[in-house]
Amino acid sequence: SIILRTVLNKKVPLQMGRMCYSSVPTTKLLIDGKFIESKTSEWLDIHNPATNEVVGRVPKATQEEMLAAVDSCSRAYRPWSDTSILSRQQIFLRYQQLIKDNIKELAKLITLEQGKTLADAEGDVYRGLQVVEYACSIPSLMLGETLPSITKDMDTFTYRLPIGVCAGIAPFNFPAMIPLWMFPIGMVCGNTYLMKPSERVPGCTMLLAKLLQDAGAPDGTLNIIHGQHAAVNFICDHPAIKAISFVGSNPAGEHIYERGSKSGKRVQSNMGAKNHGVVMPDANKENTINQLVGAAFGAAGQRCMALSTAIFVGESRDWLPELVERSKSLRVNAGDQPGADVGPLISPEAKVRVESLIQSGVDEGAKLLLDGRNTNVKGYENGNFVGPTILSGVLPAMKCYTEEIFGPVLVVLEADTLDEAITLINNNPYGNGTAIFTTNGATARKYTHEVDVGQIGVNVPIPVPLPMFSFTGSRGSFRGDTNFYGKQGISFYTQIKTVTTQWKAEDATVTSPAVTMPT
Ligand code: NAD
What we know:
Mean pLDDT: 95
Enzyme class: oxidoreductase
Family: Belongs to the aldehyde dehydrogenase family.
Radius of gyration: 25 Å
Keywords: NAD, Oxidoreductase
Bound molecules: nicotinamide-adenine-dinucleotide
Function: Malonate and methylmalonate semialdehyde dehydrogenase involved in the catabolism of valine, thymine, and compounds catabolized by way of beta-alanine, including uracil and cytidine.
Pfam family, one: Aldedh
Number of helices: 17
Oligomer: single chain
Number of strands: 24
């Protein structure tokens, strides 16, 4: 089609991976190196969250198509895992450059389908790009261990090796970063990969896949299927798939962890969050208020590391009026409009849910200091907009505290002491991220040692670790035992072979059988 040709000419990268279908572009499957139109009769609409216009359709892949995708991964596995590690490194070195060259196009696709602002969308790509850059140091990361002379003439060494076909299931909120936590690390270790992007935002993954092809990844090393529950269950059950990386909500993540583990797979499951920011009275006020506002309302609160809960300790509660004023200054608008700070929520259903959680807070006795409901964005009246919202006087039993809101809503609690704040946080089931704002080193140290949360910022509001570390959410925010990216990511996608050798000089030949356990 014309669209496909313009894609190949790279003139309209927004249409990447799609073909014209009933006047709306359709998302293709990637099977065995070819972007193909699904034969399914079941399609889902993709909406622009700022307008709710249908901007594309995504197929629910058929059983036959999903089987073909896994078969392609299986066939590609042996030659790919036998490829020299330096060749794999070269492909990913080219890939990181292609992502850099296409960052604007990738960001446009993210804003179109996900809604976040263009500047934030570039950050989404950039944080994923850093994982690809990390993957480029694979020769050092795959090194094994050696120990010579563990006994006479005997040496032991290990190889770190790939595990086979791996699969990734991604959420809607980071269309670039999260898929890039998955297939680049899995593939650079020598595995082949089956991706199932979020059905709400598949476009960015399709363009990322095309760029990986352009970088030289052989056919079949990355396959892409689309769909919802049936595709997820297919991945959990298929015997050729050895490992699943999942990021998303708790109901889905717990289901996938259980179903995938039951069929013998490794599963790492990053899930929901309720991240607390603790504000000490000795904190730098200006810095803290700005950090809180940015981390609570950026990306319309649709970040697993958003600071969605603030605990004001002691007299820092006097800062609330200024927090409200600063929050009011954010501009709510479509993500592609200049100056936009807060874009729309992903869907009308998400908007209804967020607004009803705000109302539940009011009904349960919280004080609505700033109400973002009924935010009218000129020219985008059909968009899923909710403006920055602040509920104060929130108590732990309230629904707006017990549930992850995943919207631009900051719930504020108060505590008399740091100990009280730590107890509150440790009693919350989630353990993804937290931050403390203070100028006192001893306070910060006590906090980082006593709070039971996997990722902690000290005057850093969204402490998502860079890829040389790992994403270490804990407790209710994670299932599995090996985290995403960093050394743990390499461990997740590899297995160890341990070799013990004995090379004796001829005159030291064993002369009788040893029947006792060698020590
Ligand atoms: P989601 O769970 O609805 O969807 C994630 C993926 O799972 C999608 O590919 C979807 O098709 C599939 N899925 C959805 N429901 C399913 C079900 N019941 N059974 C099987 N598969 C299912 O999540 P989302 O709404 O796309 O993303 C938002 C959630 O992701 C939030 O809870 C957020 O905190 C979490 N998240 C966590 C992290 C992290 O690293 N901890 C990062 C980003 C997002």
